[in-house]
Automatic annotation (TrEMBL):
All copies of domain Alpha/beta hydrolase fold-3, residue ranges: 77-279
Signal peptide: none
GO molecular function: triacylglycerol lipase activity
Annotated source species: Gluconacetobacter liquefaciens (Acetobacter liquefaciens)
Name this protein carries in UniProt: Alpha/beta hydrolase
Entry's family note: Belongs to the 'GDXG' lipolytic enzyme family.
Entry keywords, A to Z: Hydrolase
The organism's taxonomic lineage, starting at the top: Bacteria, Pseudomonadati, Pseudomonadota, Alphaproteobacteria, Acetobacterales
SUPFAM superfamilies assigned: alpha/beta-Hydrolases
Protein backbone atom coordinates (compact mmCIF):
# COMPACT_ATOMS: atom_id res chain seq x y z
CA UNK A 1 0.00 0.00 0.00
CA UNK A 2 1.16 3.52 -0.83
CA UNK A 3 -0.42 6.66 0.60
CA UNK A 4 0.17 10.28 -0.38
CA UNK A 5 -0.54 12.56 2.57
CA UNK A 6 -1.13 16.26 1.82
CA UNK A 7 0.28 19.06 3.93
CA UNK A 8 -2.04 19.82 6.83
CA UNK A 9 -3.35 23.41 6.96
CA UNK A 10 -2.21 23.58 10.59
CA UNK A 11 1.40 23.05 9.44
CA UNK A 12 1.62 25.62 6.64
CA UNK A 13 3.07 28.41 8.79
CA UNK A 14 5.42 26.09 10.70
CA UNK A 15 6.80 24.59 7.50
CA UNK A 16 7.40 28.05 6.03
CA UNK A 17 9.24 29.10 9.18
CA UNK A 18 11.35 25.94 9.09
CA UNK A 19 12.35 26.55 5.50
CA UNK A 20 13.37 30.11 6.24
CA UNK A 21 15.40 29.02 9.27
CA UNK A 22 17.27 26.26 7.41
CA UNK A 23 17.89 28.07 4.12
CA UNK A 24 21.17 29.66 5.24
CA UNK A 25 22.61 26.29 6.27
CA UNK A 26 21.31 24.08 3.46
CA UNK A 27 23.86 21.61 2.22
CA UNK A 28 26.63 22.51 4.65
CA UNK A 29 28.83 19.46 5.05
CA UNK A 30 29.04 18.18 8.62
CA UNK A 31 31.87 16.18 10.13
CA UNK A 32 32.60 14.89 13.63
CA UNK A 33 32.92 18.46 14.92
CA UNK A 34 29.14 18.83 14.47
CA UNK A 35 28.28 16.01 16.88
CA UNK A 36 27.49 18.25 19.90
CA UNK A 37 25.24 20.48 17.77
CA UNK A 38 23.43 17.50 16.25
CA UNK A 39 22.91 15.86 19.63
CA UNK A 40 21.56 19.11 21.09
CA UNK A 41 19.08 19.43 18.22
CA UNK A 42 17.72 15.91 18.79
CA UNK A 43 17.66 16.47 22.54
CA UNK A 44 15.13 19.26 21.98
CA UNK A 45 12.40 16.72 21.13
CA UNK A 46 9.86 16.66 23.99
CA UNK A 47 10.58 13.79 26.41
CA UNK A 48 8.03 11.24 27.56
CA UNK A 49 6.89 11.56 31.15
CA UNK A 50 7.71 8.62 33.40
CA UNK A 51 9.50 5.44 32.50
CA UNK A 52 13.13 4.52 33.03
CA UNK A 53 16.20 5.39 30.98
CA UNK A 54 19.42 3.53 31.75
CA UNK A 55 22.77 2.80 30.19
CA UNK A 56 23.04 -0.79 29.01
CA UNK A 57 25.28 -3.08 26.99
CA UNK A 58 23.62 -5.69 24.79
CA UNK A 59 25.55 -8.03 22.56
CA UNK A 60 28.71 -6.22 23.56
CA UNK A 61 27.37 -2.92 22.21
CA UNK A 62 26.82 -0.01 24.62
CA UNK A 63 23.66 2.02 24.38
CA UNK A 64 20.53 3.14 26.17
CA UNK A 65 17.64 0.97 27.35
CA UNK A 66 14.22 2.62 27.64
CA UNK A 67 11.46 1.12 29.77
CA UNK A 68 8.17 3.02 29.38
CA UNK A 69 5.68 2.84 32.21
CA UNK A 70 3.51 -0.25 31.75
CA UNK A 71 5.80 -1.79 29.12
CA UNK A 72 4.71 -5.29 28.19
CA UNK A 73 7.21 -8.05 28.99
CA UNK A 74 6.84 -10.08 25.80
CA UNK A 75 8.15 -7.69 23.12
CA UNK A 76 11.02 -5.30 22.46
CA UNK A 77 12.13 -2.68 19.97
CA UNK A 78 15.60 -2.11 18.57
CA UNK A 79 15.96 1.51 17.44
CA UNK A 80 18.83 2.51 15.12
CA UNK A 81 19.55 6.24 15.13
CA UNK A 82 20.47 8.38 12.14
CA UNK A 83 23.18 10.94 11.53
CA UNK A 84 24.82 10.09 8.22
CA UNK A 85 27.00 7.40 9.86
CA UNK A 86 29.05 10.29 11.30
CA UNK A 87 26.73 11.98 13.81
CA UNK A 88 24.25 10.95 16.50
CA UNK A 89 24.24 8.96 19.70
CA UNK A 90 21.90 6.78 21.70
CA UNK A 91 21.64 9.44 24.39
CA UNK A 92 20.69 12.17 21.95
CA UNK A 93 17.86 10.06 20.50
CA UNK A 94 16.42 9.08 23.87
CA UNK A 95 13.59 11.63 23.73
CA UNK A 96 12.59 10.98 20.12
CA UNK A 97 12.88 7.20 20.20
CA UNK A 98 11.25 7.23 23.62
CA UNK A 99 8.13 8.75 22.05
CA UNK A 100 7.86 5.67 19.85
CA UNK A 101 8.60 3.22 22.67
CA UNK A 102 5.93 4.82 24.86
CA UNK A 103 3.31 4.68 22.11
CA UNK A 104 4.04 1.04 21.31
CA UNK A 105 4.32 0.21 25.02
CA UNK A 106 7.48 -1.89 24.86
CA UNK A 107 11.06 -1.80 26.07
CA UNK A 108 13.54 -0.34 23.58
CA UNK A 109 17.31 -0.54 23.12
CA UNK A 110 19.21 2.16 21.20
CA UNK A 111 22.74 0.98 20.40
CA UNK A 112 25.65 3.42 20.29
CA UNK A 113 27.08 1.93 17.14
CA UNK A 114 30.54 3.10 16.11
CA UNK A 115 30.70 6.20 13.92
CA UNK A 116 32.78 7.21 10.91
CA UNK A 117 35.35 8.40 10.10
CA UNK A 118 37.00 6.86 13.15
CA UNK A 119 35.22 3.57 12.47
CA UNK A 120 34.39 3.18 8.76
CA UNK A 121 32.14 0.63 7.08
CA UNK A 122 31.29 -2.07 8.08
CA UNK A 123 31.64 -1.08 11.76
CA UNK A 124 28.13 0.37 12.07
CA UNK A 125 26.26 -2.57 10.56
CA UNK A 126 28.45 -5.04 12.45
CA UNK A 127 27.46 -3.32 15.70
CA UNK A 128 23.77 -3.31 14.77
CA UNK A 129 23.91 -7.04 14.01
CA UNK A 130 25.68 -7.67 17.32
CA UNK A 131 23.04 -5.68 19.21
CA UNK A 132 20.25 -7.63 17.51
CA UNK A 133 22.00 -10.90 18.30
CA UNK A 134 22.25 -9.78 21.94
CA UNK A 135 18.54 -8.96 22.12
CA UNK A 136 17.70 -12.39 20.74
CA UNK A 137 19.99 -14.01 23.31
CA UNK A 138 18.25 -12.15 26.14
CA UNK A 139 14.95 -13.78 25.23
CA UNK A 140 11.72 -12.08 26.14
CA UNK A 141 9.54 -12.44 23.09
CA UNK A 142 9.08 -10.75 19.75
CA UNK A 143 11.45 -8.11 18.37
CA UNK A 144 10.75 -5.30 15.92
CA UNK A 145 13.29 -2.86 14.50
CA UNK A 146 13.00 0.83 13.64
CA UNK A 147 15.34 3.56 12.49
CA UNK A 148 15.70 6.91 10.78
CA UNK A 149 17.87 8.12 7.89
CA UNK A 150 21.21 6.27 8.05
CA UNK A 151 19.67 4.27 10.89
CA UNK A 152 16.83 3.38 8.54
CA UNK A 153 19.40 2.13 6.06
CA UNK A 154 21.08 0.10 8.78
CA UNK A 155 17.69 -1.32 9.76
CA UNK A 156 16.98 -2.50 6.22
CA UNK A 157 20.53 -3.81 5.79
CA UNK A 158 20.04 -5.84 8.97
CA UNK A 159 16.87 -7.40 7.56
CA UNK A 160 18.72 -8.57 4.46
CA UNK A 161 21.71 -9.87 6.43
CA UNK A 162 19.37 -12.01 8.51
CA UNK A 163 18.37 -13.88 5.33
CA UNK A 164 22.01 -14.79 4.57
CA UNK A 165 24.62 -17.09 6.08
CA UNK A 166 25.91 -14.17 8.17
CA UNK A 167 22.61 -14.12 10.04
CA UNK A 168 22.24 -17.90 10.28
CA UNK A 169 20.51 -19.04 13.44
CA UNK A 170 18.93 -15.67 14.18
CA UNK A 171 15.16 -15.32 13.89
CA UNK A 172 13.98 -12.36 11.83
CA UNK A 173 12.18 -9.47 13.51
CA UNK A 174 8.41 -9.45 13.17
CA UNK A 175 8.54 -6.14 11.33
CA UNK A 176 10.50 -2.97 10.68
CA UNK A 177 9.56 0.71 10.42
CA UNK A 178 11.91 3.26 8.88
CA UNK A 179 11.81 7.02 8.38
CA UNK A 180 13.53 8.58 5.35
CA UNK A 181 15.92 5.62 5.03
CA UNK A 182 19.20 6.13 3.21
CA UNK A 183 19.23 2.98 1.11
CA UNK A 184 21.58 3.92 -1.73
CA UNK A 185 24.96 5.41 -0.83
CA UNK A 186 25.75 5.49 -4.56
CA UNK A 187 23.18 8.33 -4.78
CA UNK A 188 21.62 7.13 -8.04
CA UNK A 189 18.02 8.14 -7.31
CA UNK A 190 16.36 10.62 -9.69
CA UNK A 191 15.17 12.66 -6.70
CA UNK A 192 18.79 13.75 -6.17
CA UNK A 193 17.97 16.14 -9.02
CA UNK A 194 14.17 16.42 -9.03
CA UNK A 195 14.00 17.37 -5.33
CA UNK A 196 17.27 19.32 -5.17
CA UNK A 197 15.53 22.68 -4.95
CA UNK A 198 12.64 21.53 -2.75
CA UNK A 199 14.81 19.86 -0.09
CA UNK A 200 15.37 22.42 2.69
CA UNK A 201 18.25 20.52 4.31
CA UNK A 202 20.36 18.39 1.99
CA UNK A 203 22.34 18.87 -1.19
CA UNK A 204 24.01 16.05 -3.04
CA UNK A 205 27.54 17.03 -2.03
CA UNK A 206 26.59 16.87 1.65
CA UNK A 207 25.52 13.24 1.26
CA UNK A 208 28.60 12.50 -0.82
CA UNK A 209 30.73 13.76 2.07
CA UNK A 210 28.93 11.54 4.59
CA UNK A 211 29.24 8.52 2.29
CA UNK A 212 32.96 9.15 1.72
CA UNK A 213 33.65 9.36 5.46
CA UNK A 214 31.77 6.10 6.03
CA UNK A 215 32.84 4.02 3.04
CA UNK A 216 36.47 5.18 2.78
CA UNK A 217 36.89 3.59 -0.61
CA UNK A 218 34.57 0.62 -0.17
CA UNK A 219 31.90 -0.12 -2.78
CA UNK A 220 28.83 2.09 -2.32
CA UNK A 221 26.70 -0.69 -3.82
CA UNK A 222 27.71 -3.23 -1.17
CA UNK A 223 24.35 -4.48 0.16
CA UNK A 224 25.51 -4.07 3.76
CA UNK A 225 26.07 -0.36 3.06
CA UNK A 226 23.22 0.20 0.61
CA UNK A 227 20.30 -2.15 1.30
CA UNK A 228 18.66 -1.17 -1.98
CA UNK A 229 21.05 -3.70 -3.55
CA UNK A 230 20.55 -6.38 -0.93
CA UNK A 231 18.59 -9.61 -0.80
CA UNK A 232 14.93 -8.61 -0.43
CA UNK A 233 13.15 -11.96 -0.64
CA UNK A 234 11.76 -13.26 2.62
CA UNK A 235 11.83 -10.00 4.57
CA UNK A 236 9.22 -9.26 7.26
CA UNK A 237 6.58 -6.52 6.83
CA UNK A 238 8.09 -3.05 6.45
CA UNK A 239 6.66 0.44 6.87
CA UNK A 240 8.48 3.34 5.18
CA UNK A 241 7.67 7.00 5.83
CA UNK A 242 9.34 9.70 3.74
CA UNK A 243 8.95 13.39 3.01
CA UNK A 244 8.05 14.38 -0.54
CA UNK A 245 10.51 17.30 -0.41
CA UNK A 246 13.74 15.40 0.19
CA UNK A 247 16.42 14.32 -2.21
CA UNK A 248 16.36 10.88 -0.59
CA UNK A 249 12.73 10.35 -1.68
CA UNK A 250 13.71 7.78 -4.31
CA UNK A 251 15.71 5.83 -1.74
CA UNK A 252 12.32 5.02 -0.24
CA UNK A 253 10.18 4.68 -3.36
CA UNK A 254 12.66 2.42 -5.18
CA UNK A 255 13.26 0.25 -2.14
CA UNK A 256 9.51 -0.14 -1.63
CA UNK A 257 8.97 -1.06 -5.29
CA UNK A 258 11.80 -3.58 -5.41
CA UNK A 259 10.83 -5.14 -2.09
CA UNK A 260 7.23 -5.53 -3.25
CA UNK A 261 8.47 -7.23 -6.41
CA UNK A 262 10.33 -9.63 -4.12
CA UNK A 263 7.07 -10.42 -2.32
CA UNK A 264 7.56 -8.26 0.77
CA UNK A 265 4.58 -6.61 2.47
CA UNK A 266 5.55 -2.92 2.27
CA UNK A 267 3.57 0.09 3.46
CA UNK A 268 4.89 3.33 1.94
CA UNK A 269 3.64 6.69 3.24
CA UNK A 270 4.75 9.85 1.42
CA UNK A 271 4.14 13.14 3.24
CA UNK A 272 3.83 16.20 0.99
CA UNK A 273 6.03 19.26 1.69
CA UNK A 274 7.78 17.42 4.51
CA UNK A 275 11.59 17.35 4.90
CA UNK A 276 13.97 14.60 5.91
CA UNK A 277 12.93 12.80 9.15
CA UNK A 278 10.24 15.41 9.82
CA UNK A 279 8.95 13.14 12.59
CA UNK A 280 11.60 14.60 14.89
CA UNK A 281 9.62 17.86 14.74
CA UNK A 282 7.13 16.54 17.29
CA UNK A 283 5.62 19.55 19.01
CA UNK A 284 6.11 21.73 15.91
CA UNK A 285 4.39 19.83 13.07
CA UNK A 286 1.02 18.15 13.55
CA UNK A 287 2.06 15.97 10.62
CA UNK A 288 4.92 14.65 12.74
CA UNK A 289 2.44 13.55 15.39
CA UNK A 290 0.29 11.77 12.80
CA UNK A 291 3.29 10.01 11.25
CA UNK A 292 4.76 8.85 14.57
CA UNK A 293 1.34 7.57 15.63
CA UNK A 294 0.94 5.63 12.37
CA UNK A 295 4.43 4.17 12.65
CA UNK A 296 3.79 3.17 16.25
CA UNK A 297 0.51 1.52 15.33
CA UNK A 298 2.31 -0.50 12.63
CA UNK A 299 4.95 -1.67 15.10
CA UNK A 300 2.32 -2.53 17.71
CA UNK A 301 0.36 -4.54 15.15
CA UNK A 302 3.44 -6.51 14.10
CA UNK A 303 4.34 -7.25 17.72
CA UNK A 304 0.79 -8.04 18.84
CA UNK A 305 -1.23 -9.08 15.82
CA UNK A 306 -3.85 -6.52 16.80
CA UNK A 307 -4.51 -2.82 16.33
CA UNK A 308 -3.13 -0.32 18.81
CA UNK A 309 -5.97 0.78 21.11
CA UNK A 310 -7.03 4.39 20.51
CA UNK A 311 -4.49 4.81 17.70
CA UNK A 312 -4.76 8.11 15.78
CA UNK A 313 -4.03 7.26 12.16
CA UNK A 314 -5.09 10.61 10.67
CA UNK A 315 -3.73 10.91 7.16
CA UNK A 316 -1.58 7.79 7.42
Amino acid sequence: MTSINPLLPQDVAAVAAMRQATSAHKGHSLGPEARPMFDAMLGAVPPVAGGRVEDATIGGIPGVRLRPDGARPDARLLYIHGGGYVLGSAGAFTNFAGQIAARVGVEMFIPDYRLAPEHPFPAAIDDVLAAYRGLVAEGGGQIAVAGDSAGGGLTLALLSILTTAKGKGLPPPVGAAVMSPWTDLALTGASMETRAEADPIFMRDMLEAFAALYLQGRDAADPEASPLYGRLEGLPPIRIDVGDDEILLDDSTRYAAWARTAGVDVTLAIWERMPHVFQSSLGRFLTAEHAVNAMSEFLYRQLSGAALPNADLSGA
